[in-house]
């Protein structure tokens, strides 16, 4: 139970902590100086500043229905009247729907592509690799404006569908990258064993490969979900009349932010944190039982 | 194990080939994904190029006329100083990237080498924790924090460092700060991944052979983490140069960037050809800069980074 999984990188070498024990500590005098730790925690503190402000000011009793600097006392009024802002709730639902659909579709499309790129050599593989790479590297502003050009020239009206199509287009590349890493780390031995035992390649895939890749698919799907739900730049081009959460918030940021936006942000943050903590606890338990 | 095997609609699964692997398998696997990327990524990029060569106006519509003149008209005696916007965006991108390297490297180094293995993942997650809040909300909260009535400026004025007219919001510095803040994790993660691959014994060997810790770092760790820095630069620089949000929410009239120009040309003025030409120029300029950087830094195989 107490055994902690050895660090992957050590490659047989003793864990980092074991260093001090071996050999003379000629050069290791201030090896554990506090500066790096201080830099790390200051940086983390700075990243949290806007989050703290968001949470605190979501409870501010602002009389104007707009975010203001003056602290007028604590209230949960904005949480009680969460969907009182016209369009905000709808925008949130639209964003969540698009993000879930985009994540599902991009994993479904990305998994076979990742398998092909990672496990086979075939003519055109380099070109496909380059396209996936370009899809990640291309600036959102270019992808957004090019997608709008495309939809305009084929006469497809912008809206929910065009947002979904473009989100899948950038999600797929991230899904492929995550899944390729997982596939590379998965041995083919089990699959081949299944084949030796009489399974067809499809059965071996369904009963062996797929379960092995399930955690990777979940990770890829979550990344795709996060990329989609938070996208503003690409969406701003192809959304047409439909409004996603980032589009709504951007409009609000320019015109005066209703406190309910901060409430939504706080609730999403709380849920996300909870999921992350549960996931971490679960992983820790898994490594312990396996170790 | 079988309980985990829930596959979401795998319509494009591999073909049920009976015995052995066929030549066609990789093509069938890659078919749907490649087709999708072609239709909704490659063709749009090409169509952007085509739209840039159209002429016309928002009222009468646009027709394709091989109007290469648009490119020179944007940069030679233009009505709008697009070149200034482009150069300014490149400067913001460069400065923000530099900031993320300077701040992100020690953070990644700390997680990779100074904490026990069981704390690595939680500390890495903590770098990403701000991602749980929408990008636009985060940026707008900074506008709130950095505003002239906000806590930072008030504090600096209170202790006498800043004068009465001192302001942060609306300056290029605020935009660079926002860019760097929003993209820091994209620098930390690849550098961390590169550092993790380094065998700690190499550092020790260097410690034994060289005189000091600094030289050991300079001659072993830093060169070995170059691929991580490169990947980070790629992600951060491209994102910051094209970004219209930080300059819109944290900047002012003198921080207008090429990203804003593209956005306004499209949605505000409906000058589709101008917007498409500007994005093409941006793409080409970024491509050239990163190609040169790849050559100089000696990173040959770009695809290895993906």
CA radius of gyration of chain A is 24 Å
* Share of helical residues of chain A: 55-70%
Number of strands of chain A: 0
Overall geometry of chain B comes to globular
Q: Number of helical runs of chain A?
A: 11
Spatially, the strands of the biggest sheet of chain B line up as 1-2
- End-to-end Cα distance of chain B, whole Å, is 30 Å
Computed structural class of chain A: mainly alpha
Assembly level: heterodimer
Shape assignment of chain A: globular
Which structural class do you get from the secondary structure elements of chain B?
mainly alpha
Weakly predicted, low-confidence segments of chain B: 1-20
Beta content of chain B: under 5%
Main sheet record of chain A: none
Quick one: which chains have the greatest interface?
Answer: A-B, 126 and 122 residues
The helix/strand series of chain A, from N terminus to C terminus, equals HHHHHHHHHHH
Largest sheet: number of strands, sense, barrel closure of chain B: 2 strands, antiparallel
Please tell me about this protein's structure.
The complex is a heterodimer of chains A (291) and B (306). By secondary structure, chain A is mostly helical. Chain A is 68% helix and 0% strand. Chain A has helices spanning 35-57, 77-80, 88-119, 125-137, 140-154, 160-184, 189-196, 201-229, 233-238, 245-255, 259-290. In chain A, helix 7 (189-196) packs antiparallel against helix 8. Chain B contains 13 helices and two strands, in the order H-E-E-H-H-H-H-H-H-H-H-H-H-H-H. In chain B, strands 1-2 form a two-stranded antiparallel ribbon. Chain B has 306 residues and is mostly helical. The model of chain B is unreliable at 1-20 (pLDDT under 50). In chain B, helix 3 (82-113) runs parallel beside helix 7 (172-196) and helix 10 packs antiparallel against helix 13 (272-297). Chain B is globular, with a radius of gyration of 24 Å. Chain B is 67% helix and 3% strand. The chains are: A mainly alpha (291), B mainly alpha (306). Chains A and B meet through helix 1, helix 3, helix 4, helix 5 and helix 6 of A and helix 1, helix 3, helix 4, helix 5 and helix 7 of B.
């Amino acid at each position: 139970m107490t055994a902690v999984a050895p660090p992957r990188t050590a490659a047989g070498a003793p864990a980092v902590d074991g260093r001090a024990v071996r050999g003379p500590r000629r050069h290791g005098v201030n090896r554990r100086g506090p500066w790096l730790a201080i830099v790390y925690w200051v940086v983390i503190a700075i990243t949290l500043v806007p989050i703290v402000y968001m949470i605190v000011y979501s409870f501010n009793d602002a009389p104007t229905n707009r975010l203001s600097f003056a602290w007028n006392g604590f209230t949960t009024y904005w949480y009680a009247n969460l969907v009182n802002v016209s369009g905000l709730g709808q925008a949130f639902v639209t964003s969540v729907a698009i993000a879930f659909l985009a994540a599902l579709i991009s994993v479904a499309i990305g998994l076979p592509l990742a398998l092909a790129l990672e496990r086979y050599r075939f003519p055109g593989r380099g070109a496909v690799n380059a396209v996936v790479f370009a899809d990640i590297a291309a600036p959102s502003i270019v992808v957004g404006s090019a997608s709008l050009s495309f939809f305009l020239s084929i006469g497809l009206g912008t809206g929910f569908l065009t947002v979904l199509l473009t989100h899948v287009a950038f999600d797929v590349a991230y899904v492929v990258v995550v899944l390729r890493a997982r596939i590379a780390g998965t041995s083919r031995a089990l699959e081949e064993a299944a084949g030796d035992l009489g399974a067809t390649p499809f059965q071996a895939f369904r009963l062996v490969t797929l379960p092995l890749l399930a955690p990777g698919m979940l990770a890829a799907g979550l990344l795709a979900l996060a990329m989609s739900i938070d996208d503003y730049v690409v969406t701003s081009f192809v959304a047409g009349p439909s409004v996603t959460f980032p589009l709504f918030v951007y409009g609000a940021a320019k015109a005066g932010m209703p406190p309910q936006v901060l409430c939504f942000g706080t609730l999403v943050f709380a849920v996300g944190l909870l999921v992350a903590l549960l996931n971490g606890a679960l992983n820790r338990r898994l490594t312990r039982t396996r170790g | 194990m079988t309980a985990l095997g829930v596959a979401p609609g795998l319509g494009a699964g591999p073909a049920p080939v009976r015995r052995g692997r066929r030549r066609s398998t990789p093509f069938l696997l890659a078919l749907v994904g490649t087709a999708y990327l072609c239709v909704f990524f490659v063709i749009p990029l090409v169509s952007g190029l085509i739209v840039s060569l159209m002429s016309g106006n928002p009222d009468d519509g646009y027709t394709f006329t091989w109007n290469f003149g648009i490119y020179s008209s944007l940069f030679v005696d233009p009505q709008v100083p697009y070149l200034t916007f482009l150069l300014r965006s490149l400067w913001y991108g460069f400065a923000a990237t530099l900031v993320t390297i300077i701040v992100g490297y020690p953070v990644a180094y700390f997680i990779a080498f100074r904490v026990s293995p069981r704390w690595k993942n939680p500390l890495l997650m903590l770098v990403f924790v701000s991602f749980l809040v929408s990008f636009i909300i985060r940026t707008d909260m900074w506008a709130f924090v950095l505003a002239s009535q906000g806590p930072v400026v008030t504090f600096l004025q209170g202790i006498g460092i800043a004068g009465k007219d001192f302001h942060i919001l609306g300056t290029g510095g605020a935009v660079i700060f926002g860019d760097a803040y929003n993209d820091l994790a994209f620098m930390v993660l690849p550098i961390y991944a590169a550092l993790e691959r380094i065998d700690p014994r190499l550092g020790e060997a260097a410690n034994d052979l060289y005189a000091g810790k600094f030289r050991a770092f300079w001659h072993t760790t830093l060169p070995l983490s170059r691929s991580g820095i490169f990947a980070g630069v790629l992600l951060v620089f491209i994102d910051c140069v094209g970004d219209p949000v930080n300059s819109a929410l944290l900047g002012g009239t003198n921080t207008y960037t090429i990203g804003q120009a593209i956005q306004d040309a499209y949605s505000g003025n409906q000058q589709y050809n101008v917007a498409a030409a500007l994005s093409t120029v941006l793409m080409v300029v970024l491509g050239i800069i990163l190609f040169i950087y790849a050559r100089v830094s000696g990173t040959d195989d770009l695809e290895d980074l993906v």
